[in-house]
Amino acid sequence: MQTEVAVKIYKATELPQNWAKRQQADQKATADLESSVKAIISKIRAEGDMALIEFAQKFDKAALTPQTLRASAEEIKEAYGKVTKEQVAAIEFMKQRVSVFQKQLLSNSEVKAFNEGIMIQTVLRPIESVGCYVPGGQAAYPSTVVMTAVPAKIAGVPRIVVASPSDSMGKVNPLVLVACDVCGVDEVYKVGGAQAIAALAYGTDTIQPVRKIMGPGSKYVTMAKVLVSQDVAIDMPAGPSEVLVLADQYADPRLIAYDMISQAEHGTDSVAVLITTSDRLAAQVQEQLGKLAASAPRADKIADSLSKYSFIVTCTSMDEAVELTNEFAAEHLEVMAKDAKALSERLVAGLILLGPYSPVPLSDYASGTNHVLPTGGFAKSFSGLSAIDYMRRVSIAECSREGLEKVRAQVKVLTDTENLPNHSKAINARFEQ
What we know:
The chain has helices at 27-47, 49-60, 73-80, 85-107, 142-155, 174-182, 193-202, 219-228, 253-264, 279-295, 299-309, 318-328, 340-344, 360-365, 401-417, 421-428; strands spanning 8-11, 111-115, 118-126, 129-133, 159-163, 187-189, 212-214, 233-234, 242-247, 271-276, 311-314, 332-336, 351-354, 391-399. By secondary structure, it is an alpha/beta fold. A six-stranded parallel sheet has the order 1-11-10-9-12-13, sandwiched between helices. The model has no long low-confidence stretch (mean pLDDT 94).
């Protein structure tokens, strides 16, 4: 039986209300999700390890104990025997690509300035501990280990923790374990979902809490991150995954369809969108999606994702298309248009990929950019993960007597304006005999 794919085409003027809100547009579903995740967090805070063990049995069918919640050195060593040399080399290749970019980023992040006797500088200090969430379930994501742990290592974080769900035998995927070892992770715990986020945030007898939580995940993981962010820092809301393709009449419909399908295979709540100025291209992509998705690996999951949360929008001009693209503010934005580079200066997204040879899988695995990115429209105010997110930015100022004398009068005007006379007295005291 052939899997049917139903991706709708809308005219820009006929878009449904809340079209850019993804699945969160369903307010009841969002309220139910929040309630469910709050209950999980409360249980972890109250029962600690015992709740983690209960959830592992319920969601992963794994029989764990407090002693086996953490992956042992022996398990990590055994994992190397279950992967190929090519897989290890690929992980090391990705680590090298990400490392180069992150080191360069940090080298340009500390600044120093002098101004008439006042020296100011900004220095970066690593956060003491971070938790990296690595999704599991039906797929293994060693790439997410690289994307979250390598920037932490480059930043100099002393304690790097990974949480990832186990299989029914109580084992973390061997590729994930190998990636953790290659990237220098200090602790690996066999916990997933919202309960993992709660454990990283608040701690249990086995898992010590961390200062900041990083990484993508399901809607449950994302909701948990948002909820615990009142008490512990997070990188950003990151998940479920999404791609938006902005295209004109010159784009290849077959490539666009492949890229939308590749995003849809992440899960049934993934989002793939095409916004185009060409009615003809829209129809061609719709047709290609039907053909390619039917014969694709994991066809049922892809068809479900495309039919639920994916769609195509046609616009009368590129200006209109850019406006809608920015309203959506996608995690990944592919620009397949004649003036892609010029358009990129006007666009809002977590990551912008230009031209037909820059698909999302390139950024996921080989470009050196990070694939942990803001989703759900949060690209309007959040950036993709980088080594800077693992650091605290500290400003340092030093002033000479002459420098302080030069600003003394202006400070007094401002302190009088704000009715803070003792601020001015604190400066004047330095010039009294």
